[in-house]
Structures
1.
Amino acid sequence: MNLPRLYNIAKENLFDSSLVLMSWLVPKGRDRYVFSASTGKTYSGNPKFLFEYMRTKHRCVFVVNDKPLVMNLRQRGIKANYTYSFASWWSVVRARSLVVDNGLRGPFAYGILARFGRFNILQTWHGTGIKGTIKHHGMNETIRKWLNKSFSTILASSPPHKEVLQQYFENDNVVITGSPKNDIFFRKSLPSGYSYLDKYDSVILYAPTFRDDMWFHPFDSAFLNRLNEWLKENNYIFLIKRHPNDPYFVVGAGYENIRDITKEVEDVQELLLFVDILITDYSSISTDFSLTGRPIIFYVYDNEEYTKIRPHFFGLERLPGPFVYDQDSLLDHLKDMSWSKSLGYKMDYMKSRDFWNTYQDGKSCKRVEALLDKRSVRKMNDVKCPICGSANVRTKRRLIKHWCRDCCNWFVQGD
């Protein structure tokens, strides 16, 4: 390991050590919450939608480790801080709860020391579906298991999803609330930024997951030419949204009705509202999109090779289909959509949707807010009022004196 890398590791752990130390000395704010997404890289996913739901009622801040993104968010009226700023550091120390959807980078420089601190960390996770996790070995696996113990609560969208998360995180504190990001499918208003799609009669989105072996070529140029001609004839648009971990899948220029919009999309959840047909593979995007009731095609041309590296948690039978394995079959399914109107498909669709989504009411954010409000004080202080037994307790004077908000009495722990 080279010296610059060692220096960065030392700097990150020093920063995190200061957070851990001060978390024990500084009282937690009654109504303070810190949010971060994609290890501090983006403003998206479950933390974003939960933040937008809670920020008008609570003291919320979104933390990212990208300075241009901080400036962009502030210009949009969003309270955002840079990870290494004092404002961010202080907000993490004082936060009643930290909300993430992956690792701990964002609120922390690295996060490996978070377990030593007095933090209530909510893991909202970022996906629900059949895709398995790749096995790590040696130090990487040790670090993963260590970081997973930092999460006080983990959110799931259904009992099968809960089972998967308990297995992956080796943590039984998983609660079924639904995904906050999926509340968007139950809103009446549409987000701005996609008005250019109005001129097309149908919007088709191809959104695959990434491949661990990096290189994959789902389409050849001959197919793209045929597809583009058919799209133009019918006034359809074919959008491509790559996975954030996939910089290798590239579609060349020159296709009038085929467009890669990966760099233009801040949050794919908003884009899904404008999509008429989704094409995906093993990605969890299908379980989210199923809440719209619109057709999904599973293009699984490399299922055998893919599962050798990353076995599925569940088989393809937990998805509604149809499953297509080559380009010609994919185009045939697009040209003839009669399969999407069959009773068998509709029954399979509803069965799969219900398997992955216990709640289908647009109230996941509300449930998570109630969960945070109920659990945060108990996790922070681990103390109950001796008079009324309530855990709704506020700590004063460096954890020596406590105030019960329910019976309005001061007490000292041990009274």
2.
Amino acid sequence: MNFSHRCKTSSPFAFLLFFSIILLVCSAIVNGDEISDVKGTDDFDSNNSLSGDLPWSDITLTDAISGEEYSLSSLLDQGKPVVMHTFAIWCSACSSQLKETTLFQEETGGMYPVLNVDIDPNEKDEDIESHVNKNNYSGYFATAPAEFSVGLAQDAGVDVLMKIPQTFIFSGNNAYKLPAGVYPAKALNEIIASVTEEGSSS
């Protein structure tokens, strides 16, 4: 898979389409549901992957805690599988996921980058920083620019913004979408091990 950036708003029609999608995305977020179901390794389906280019993976994000700039692509350039969660501060299931992912990072020695993207446009960096510091979460934390949310919804379906938390695993040129819900640290570790094995055997 080629994680290369391409502009989708180069024509007037595409420009209008882009902003129509933004309105749809914002509506999805506002009316979204949190999914508190606890998931496991058996819920992972390696066939449920994103296909084609993922232009939003090159969009620059600014870390809400450190102010560092990065993109999903730059995290992948570290050569390790990347875990990405969508979340919102008001979402208790998301908080459960962030707690499990922090435990996962502790157990793996921070081996795998974890990107946590706040998709609620009403939440600001200072809100995220307070939430993270209060709960001692670890990982990368950033608010999602509109074009990031739009691109994600285009490639993975609007349900990724309507049902949170959502978890994605990126390994090499593969991008896997997991069913919405909370993944314990053990399940994340086992899923990453399985996608790493699959990548090395292909």
